[in-house]
Every structure is written in structure tokens, then in C-alpha cells.
């Protein structure tokens, strides 16, 4: 049997030729998955002999990645805020930018949180894991997304504090919350053609775009927030970098106070926050 190291170089070359953005990183992640070792310990195993069945598995993964299937779909998971979340084509791949939404949410205490557009559950479940006394409701239109979130809730041990419901935005929601949070579909229909293949071909379209101007969800969230926020509660949303002023305008027009646009680590508008009285 040849060592794993001999299979890594041609894999990197294949991914580079396919236009993958970081071929070396992705090849190493997929090799670690095929070999059944932790990615941070892969270097220690590169000289190990590679079983033929594992090599074939690795080569299959590389071929799928070269076809621009996301790494998270190939290995079935993605790290977010230091925790591993199950990921399938039914949900958005948790993104580093969304961790800014977590940081902003944790800036103030809350006891009850509502996540609209739940997806994998990475936002709601992370907040519940970080705040052991909090409870939350998560809503998603997709039954398949709710199934993924249910698995993640159990894996993180927060299922008893997470009430996951199927429906459209506020429709299945009753009661009031200290925090309403959402990363809604904000890509305009006209922008969809410019997305990377990993996103355009492999992530759920309904979680990416409203098939309009990218602002539909924010109008709904702003209009419904005050009916579900507790006194002093917050509405926090992730936005596209060109949408800050428009979304802040929706919040202010709906009667939310202290509206702010927060930037991400790259200095781009990324979050809008508003407060109830």
C-alpha cells in the first residue's frame, strides 16, 4: 500500500485545475475524512499506508469536489462557533460571517429567543448552548431543514430547550421574546447568476433568494417584530453588504428604536439591530 502523502499532491492539482479556491485545504480535509482521522492530526498520518478502499473513497470525494460540491456536503458537517453542525443540501452552509450575528446577540443577556429561517439551527442552537438558562423557538418553512436542525439540537444537548416549528416567518409563533434573530434569504434574483457553483448549484435556493429584490424578508421581519418582542427586546438580522440603509429604514419605519448597522471584520455592513420600547 502506498502512503497517503502520495495521493495528496494529485488531489490538490485536480482541485486547482477545477478552479477550487483553496485546493490544498480542501484536499487535506477530504483526505482526513477518507482516512478517518482528525484534520488537525493529518500530518502525523501522511506516511501511513493507505488502504485501497479508503483511497477509492478519497478519489471519489475529490471528483465530487472538483465538480464544485461543497466540502461540508461531502463530509456532512461544518464548524460554527467552535461546534460541529450536521449539514446537508437542505440547509445553508454555516458561514463565518454569521458568527458576527452570534457575537452581537451575546452582547446582552436574553432568556427567550426566536430564530426565523432556522436552517441547520446553527444560530439558535449556538445561542442556547452558550446560554444554558435560555429557551428558544426556531421556525423554518422546510421540513427537511427542520430535520437537520433536530439532529443538531440533539447532538448539542439542547433539544429540551429548543422548540422547532414548521411555518412561514411569524405564522406559527406566539408569545414574546427578548431576542428575535434571523439570517434570511437576502440575495436578489438578479444576483443569483453571479454566485459560485458551490452555492448556486448545491444550496437550497429558497434560503438564498426571495426571487425579488432581496429585501422581502426584512419587510416581514420589521413589520412583525414589535408584536413578538418583549419590552426592551431586540431584533437582529444579517444582511448583504449593500442592504444596510434599506433594512435600517424598514426597522425605523416599523417603530423600532436605536437602530444600528454593524460591520463585519472586513468593514462591510453585516448586521442591523433594532429595539422595542
What features would you highlight for this structure?
277 residues, alpha/beta, Rossmann fold, 2 domains, 7-stranded mixed sheet, 11 helices, 38% helix, 19% strand
Report on the structure:
This protein has two domains: 5-67; 89-275, Vaccinia Virus protein VP39 (Rossmann fold, 3-Layer(aba) Sandwich). The protein is 38% helix and 19% strand. The chain has helices spanning 5-17, 23-35, 52-66, 71-75, 99-105, 122-130, 143-156, 197-200, 205-208, 216-225, 244-253, and strands at residues 77-80, 83-86, 112-116, 135-140, 162-166, 177-182, 229-238, 257-263, 269-275. It has a seven-stranded mixed β-sheet with strand order 5-4-3-6-7-9-8, with helices on both faces. A two-stranded antiparallel sheet has the order 1-2. Helix 1 crosses helix 2 and helix 2 (23-35) packs antiparallel against helix 3. The protein starts with a helix and ends with a strand. 38% of the residues are buried.
Instruction: Supply the CATH superfamily name of the largest domain.
Output: Vaccinia Virus protein VP39
Q: What would CATH call the class of the largest domain?
A: Alpha Beta
- Name the structural class: alpha/beta
Give the name of the CATH architecture of the largest domain: 3-Layer(aba) Sandwich
What is the CA-atom radius of gyration, in angstroms?
A: 20 Å
Give the mean pLDDT.
97
The strand count comes to 9
Note the beta-strand portion: 15-25%
Order of helices and strands: HHHHEEHEHEHEEHHHEHEE
| Weakly predicted, low-confidence segments | none
